[in-house]
Amino acid sequence: MSEPRSGAPVVLESVTKRYVLGDGSALVAARDVSFEVTAGESVALTGTSGSGKSTLLHLIGAVDAPNSGTIRVADVTVSDLRGRAAADYRSTIGFVFQQYFLLPSLTLVDNVCAPLMGRQRVRDLRGKAMALLDSVGLAGRAHALPSELSGGQQQRVAIARALIGEPSLLLADEPTGNLDSATAEDIMGLLDRLQLDLSLTMVIATHDVHLAAWCDRRLSVSDGRVRKPPTDERSQSRRPARAHSGVVGA
Ligand SMILES: Nc1ncnc2c1ncn2[C@@H]1O[C@H](COP(=O)(O)OP(=O)(O)O)[C@@H](O)[C@H]1O
Ligand SMILES: [Mg+2]
Description:
Layout: E1 10-20, E2 26-37, E3 42-46, H1 53-60, E4 68-73, E5 76-77, H2 83-90, E6 94-97, H3 108-113, H4 122-135, H5 151-163, E7 169-173, H6 181-197, E8 201-206, H7 209-212, E9 217-222, E10 225-227
Parallel strand pairs: 3-8, 3-9, 6-7, 7-8
Antiparallel strand pairs: 1-2, 1-4, 4-5, 9-10
Helix pairs in contact: 4-5, 5-6
The structure holds adenosine-5'-diphosphate and magnesium ion (MG).
């Protein structure tokens, strides 16, 4: 059995990200953003298209670096990482994208193994991948190709792939954006269950406030700024009280 895990806390302090556009002008995609996500918490970043949600996930995931400010994930100062160090950090967190990004010529089990191929013994890796496919409801489909699956099933595989490295932080960028509403609910339910079972910290970008209600907390992103939520924000959650404290660090 694997060790009990606990999610990684995430802290952003005065984070600013500017993009220089083709005409030389600057676009500020994150403006002096500060917020915290506690270990084992799920937070939805909500806001319209272009508000800066993906930028924040890219910064937390060290896909991009901020111009100023500090980002810490557990004991790692992510905002200082560059090159190889950033790549090593990225391999410790899970990413889920709107477009799934499965490799079409690989079977499902090989897609799940892909991030760690060459880094772990193949037998161990495949055993872990089979267990993950089981946990996302795809036991028995391990040797199918992605093209044989529905969109919702492909996203389940992508979620299993995101978990193969046993991350303590899962970042999901519009994970239900390509799915019909019933399938989107299924996927959010799956993410919610896995997050609780694995004590993951989870940050989800979504423009869908209905899906955001699955998370413990919502932060509204607008024009690169994160609005501090009203104090009664938690009451908007549709999820039953899950007593994180009983699972994480108890
Ligand atoms: N690599 C980039 N170069 C230039 N501008 C970018 C880049 N990435 C994002 N932007 C701009 O930053 C703003 C925020 O984008 P994004 O974070 O993708 O928003 P969201 O995910 O909320 O739709 C948008 O105006 C977008 O056009
Ligand atoms: Mg986006």
